[in-house]
Amino acid sequence: MPKNPKLKSILIIGSGPIIIGQACEFDYSGSQALRSLREDGIETILINSNPATIMTDPSMADHVYLLPLNTKSILQILKEHPQIDAVLPTMGGQTALNLCIEADEKGIWKDFGVEIIGVDIDAINITEDREQFRELMAKIGVPMAPQATATSFLKGKEIAQEFGFPLCIRSSFTLGGAGAAIVYDEEDFDKLMRRGLEISPIHEVMIDKALLGWKEYELELLRDSNDNVVIICSIENMDPMGIHTGDSITVAPAMTLSDRTFQKMRDMAIHMMRSIGDFAGGCNVQFAVSPDENEDIIAIEINPRVSRSSALASKATGYPIAKIATKLALGYHLDELNNQITKSTSALFEPTLDYVIVKIPRWNFDKFEGSDRTLGLQMKAVGEVMGIGRSFQEALHKATQSLEIKRNGLGADGKENTNYDQVIEKLKFASWDRVFIIYDAIKMGIPLSRIHDITKIDMWFLKQYEELYFLEKEISTFNIDTIEKPLLLEAKQKGYGDRQIAHMLGCLESQVYNKREELGINRVYKLVDTCAAEFEAKTPYYYSTFESDMQTANGERYSDNESVVTDKKKIIVLGSGPNRIGQGIEFDYCCVHGVYAAKECGYETIMINCNPETVSTDFDTADKLYFEPVFWEHIYDIIKHEKPEGVIVQLGGQTALKLAEKLDRYGIKIIGTSYKALDLAEDRGSFSTLLKENNIPYPKFDTAETADEALEVAKELDFPILVRPSYVLGGQGMKIVINEKELEEHVVSLLNKIPNNKLLLDHYLEGAIEAEADAICDGEEVYIIGIMEHIEPCGIHSGDSNSTLPPFNLGEFVMQQIKDHTKKIALALNTVGLINIQFAVKDDMVYIIEANPRASRTVPFIAKAYGEPYVNYATKLMLGEKKIKDFKFEPKLKGYAIKQPVFSFNKFPNVDKTLGPEMKSTGESILFIDSLKDDQFYDLYSRRKMYLSK
Questions:
Q1: Cβ proximity of 284 and 308 under 8 Å
Q2: Nearest by Cα to 160 from 180, 138, 135, 187
Q3: Res 36 pLDDT > 90
């Protein structure tokens, strides 16, 4: 059946600001849904309060409402657009579903004649209300762990007594496992039970017998209104039950599942999806499997919406789940839709993978001093990376190389943990570095059987690790001259980086690279094609691997490279890698706009990134996507293969910027601002000389490399002093110290964490107002796109401050200084593209805190507030296609826009919530007010000093 002809105008609800447990995977799903609806000529209306994402870009929907996600905003939109026929709530995570239910309970959809598509409200209620779900599963004969519901503390006590420990407590209607915990003994039960009841919006918890050590699996399903069901992807959690799937290392396809059990699991999943309601769309089902011969299957939960895993499954298979789920919600059947990759087969098929993907979460515990770093039922990760390889080992290595935590992969980098007690402790209580700790334990000689007993990780995975360690041991007996081709090829096929091999052979990375070249061990690129090459794929979506040469009948040797290089002029855009605090989705927004702008200028665009949650890694954003670590070796090989005109580094945050030096050294053209200028802005000494030459004031500062030097410098600077390491993002390691003891402690701790770093010490301007400006520059002219004033005082990281556009409290004299300084600095740094400058204003004098000649966190916010495509303009300046005078700037903003930070402190209840120079917010929302008399502004302003910590 083709689409429902009655649906002409559809409202999509977004997921709001990024928080731990609900990140940019929903912006990816929402963006796909919007594009899918537009293909069918449907008018799209979007509500979402997040300014940092591409989803809320004016180009994405016919009407974008940057409003708070509440029923008041929904009413406002429905009154303005009486033509809305339906609402699609399944693309915006739990936030959108909860809002849809609330609007349904208030009768809003009924009053306006709006149909809910893509899901059935009853299905949501059944799956979220754990008691109803348990009863339904019992009715349809799907086994579950012994469990019972409690709506009071007393009832919970009774259940615990009946089941015995360990137990799982899970709160109903929450996201990211909020309120969930494993209770090992009676002492912890009271506290965790109270917390679970408190966090649940309906004050209900499900208590179930903990299936610790059972294996965990997920299936991603799609169903159409004709009841056709396809299973897009099977995902296995390497970590057993007891760790939230968002915090687990996951592998696709499932690796250790027997075919018999997989078939049984498929049937159960389809049965479950059909039983929860009559809806067309996507669904995610989670199962536990006993780790013995019986392989008993138990259902954990089902989510009738796209999820974190469906973004991962889409990137893993190349099957765009959200896009197809949207079509199904419109009434299409799977057999009427095209497979988006082959363009010739139908969407009624199940992808086959001839590669392996490994997802590893990315945590930010360093931002939450004193937080509990062990992993459990409540999600704590802020981002994730995905590695694609021909084997589990290669994919695992590529994923660890993508994490950007100063590791070169698993082991072989001199950073292993050699403390036996610590290793055992970290294995017992799953830690964020468990992926590395397993390797360290094997290296230490701890038997696999012992590691298995402690972690309950399947022996197959542990044996894969052991093989890698044996290979490292073997390579270490050679040197660069004696190692032979088969062994070096095997190391590369198993994902070891040149840096790691150099560490094993005791030589330089470049020597390993040269040796590979000499022996003809080169990367080849393979297509992600959904159908294991049975049909020709039309989408240019690649991963790299190494192959043995093949020989043709006439004796020619070759290896099969599926990435065909065109003769068009090309541009590579480096992505920003995994999300983290300090570098989030706003850089993905910038990369996507950069790609679109380069396309408009006639370039073939190539994207390199490893983040499965984002729009930049969608297979049809750039002309070619390389799903690879943003890691030197991988990038260099792609550049050598593609031979682009140049590389854009200023849109991918600090990740891309850090690679500028290497690119420069290897003679690769950096598009836009040169490496010299980028480096000058990072080097405080040279930068302050530049400021001095231009008569621009800055706080007194000096640098130090030891604690002794820091104490000497302090005598000159006067306390309080702001201490920070150089070349970091998100204020990592920044602190305001007020005496010598604090200074010494902080410097010693910083140098332990980041050895050989040059520390910057600034005199901290107490009581100053902080402001920042973003500008674009073509090397001759500067256009300031926005000046913002922070409501919080100077000393709180700009990412954690409420930023007001335009400023509300800076006089004309101060504003003129900001404009003059911005223009002078942008030109002095020979900026071509974007620049962000931060200021401290004290006694009407404007001081420079820092300048970053790259895209900043605030660029998407300004673009949304003024309704102007500034990244598009900046990219055209970088490419030399346009000058500032070629653009017609018409910023439109009535009143003020405020960028409001959003925090995820609820995941870390014991953490100090005071704010300071180190960034802690995970996301942001935008608030529009007509005047400063608005109550919301007054409320923010009156609380401005509450959070400042030293």
A1: no
A2: 187
A3: yes
Which amino acid is present at 48?
A: N
- Round to whole Å and give the CA distance between 616 and 627: 10
Which tokens belong to 565?
């290089």
d(CA 814, CA 805): 15
Tell me how far apart the alpha carbons of residues 334 and 329 are, in angstroms, rounded to a whole number.
11
User: Is there a cis peptide before residue 612, judged by omega within 30 degrees of 0?
Assistant: no
Alpha helices in 433-508 (DSSP H): 434-444, 448-455, 459-475, 485-493, 498-505
According to DSSP, residue 668 is labeled P
The helix (H) or strand (E) run that includes residue 358 is strand 356-362
The pairing of beta strand 167-171 with beta strand 181-183: antiparallel
| Integer Cα distance of 285 and 274 in angstroms | 12
Q: Are strands 735-737 and 721-725 parallel, antiparallel or unpaired?
A: antiparallel
Three-state SS for 875-913 is HHHHCCCCCHHHCCCCCCCCCEEEEEEECCHHHCCCCCC
Q: Are 432 and 373 in contact (CB under 8 A)?
A: yes
CA 792 remoteness from chain centre: 27
Task: Name the percent of the chain in helix, strand, coil, to the closest 5.
Answer: 35, 20, 40
- C-alpha 78/C-alpha 715 separation (Å) is 63
Task: Average the pLDDT over 421-441 and give the result.
Answer: 94
| Confidence at 897, pLDDT banded by 50, 70, 90 | very high
* The pTM of the whole model exceeds 0.90: yes
Alpha-carbon gap, residue 630 to 611, rounded angstroms: 10
Q: Are 159 and 145 in contact (CB under 8 A)?
A: no
CA nearest to 319, candidates 543, 579, 539, 605: 539
Amino acid at the residue 7: L
* Residue 904 CB burial class (10 angstroms; 0-12, 13-18, ≥19): buried
d(CA 266, CA 268): 5
Higher pLDDT among residues 914 and 875, named by residue = 875
Using alpha carbons, select from 863, 780, 889 the residue that is nearest to residue 826.
Answer: 780
Averaged pLDDT, 290-313:
90
Q: Provide the 3-class DSSP secondary structure of residue 693.
A: helix
Owner of token pair 């403390």 = 419
* Model pLDDT for residues 801-850, shown as the tens digit of each residue: 999 999 999 999 999 999 999 999 999 999 999 999 999 999 999 999 99
- The gap from C-alpha 900 to its chain's centroid, in whole angstroms, comes to 20
Strands 769-778 and 782-793, bridge-based pairing: antiparallel
Average pLDDT of the chain to the nearest whole number: 91
Instruction: Please tell me the predicted confidence (pLDDT) of residue 950.
Output: 37
State pLDDT tens for residues 555-569.
Answer: 676 678 889 999 999
CA distance 343 to 367: 45
β-strand partners of 229? 223
List 525's β-bridge partners, or say none: 544
CB 67 within 8 Å of CB 49 = yes
Which helix or strand (DSSP H or E) is residue 655 part of? helix 653-657
* Calpha distance 58→865 (Å, rounded): 11
Please report, as a single letter, which amino acid is at residue 922: T
The pLDDT of residue 536: 64
Give the tokens for residue 383: 């981002």
Integer Cα distance of 324 and 69 in angstroms: 25
Residue type, 101: I
CA-to-CA dists, residue 923 to 47, 183, 592, 914, angstroms? 17, 31, 19, 17
Whether 734 contacts 743, CB under 8 Å: no
Residue 948 in this model has a pLDDT that exceeds 70 = no
Helix (H, G, I), strand (E, B) or coil at 106: coil
Angle at 352 between CA 348 and CA 353, to 5 degrees: 145
Cα(215)–Cα(236) distance, rounded to whole angstroms? 8
Q: Who's near 187: CB < 8 A, 6+ residues apart?
A: none
Query: Angle between the 321-329 and 308-317 helix axes, to the nearest 10 degrees?
Result: 110
